[in-house]
Amino acid sequence: MPRQLGELEDAVMTRVWQWNRPVTVREVLEDLQQERSIAYTTVMTVMDNLHQKGWVRREVDGRAYRYTAVSTRAAYSAALMNEAWSRSDNPAAALVAFFGMMSAEQREALADAMRIVRPGLPGASGHPAEEAADGVAAEPGDEPADEADAEAAEDPADAAGPDTGR
């Protein structure tokens, strides 16, 4: 699993991800220098470290290297979330707490992602009225639609059902 990037590694990778093309140390340096005072050798070392860690690949271009991201920022973020979640001694409670911290926009992004991953799930239509009719609460804090949902809300681990091998 990936380790969280350090501050400077993240600043470099942010540019590599945003530009979405092979980049040189000089290009990253010039962009970083708009925000902070930093030396060419520092950026070169960070990019070499990112290469050694497998975050970027590089190709020789004349006397320099061009660096390209190995994966996307979204994949990096997902791996970090998965790592944090898998370290929990109570994954269901961790998810409930995480969902409780989400903004309305984040909840909508989660709903959109669930419709992509599992289009047959209740609420896949994207219409709140249909979701409520399917027994899916439209907003956190809404009352569960039936007794099974109420029990699942009391103990999220039970929502998986009896045949999950817990």
Key traits:
mainly alpha, two-stranded antiparallel sheet, 7% strand, disordered C terminus
Describe what you observe in this structure:
By secondary structure, this protein is mainly alpha-helical. Helix content is 52%, strand content 7%. It contains 8 helices and 2 strands. It has helices at 7-19, 25-32, 40-52, 73-86, 91-101, 104-117, 128-133, 147-154; strands at 56-61, 64-69. Strands 1-2 form a two-stranded antiparallel sheet. A hairpin with a 2-residue loop joins strand 1 and strand 2. Helix 1 (7-19) packs across helix 3 (40-52). Residues 126-166 have low confidence and may be disordered.
What's the average pLDDT?
79
Describe the main β-sheet briefly: 2 strands, antiparallel
Order of helices and strands: HHHEEHHHHH
Number of helices: 8
Task: Show the helix and strand layout.
Layout: H1 7-19, H2 25-32, H3 40-52, E1 56-61, E2 64-69, H4 73-86, H5 91-101, H6 104-117, H7 128-133, H8 147-154
Antiparallel strand pairs: 1-2
Helix pairs in contact: 1-3, 2-3
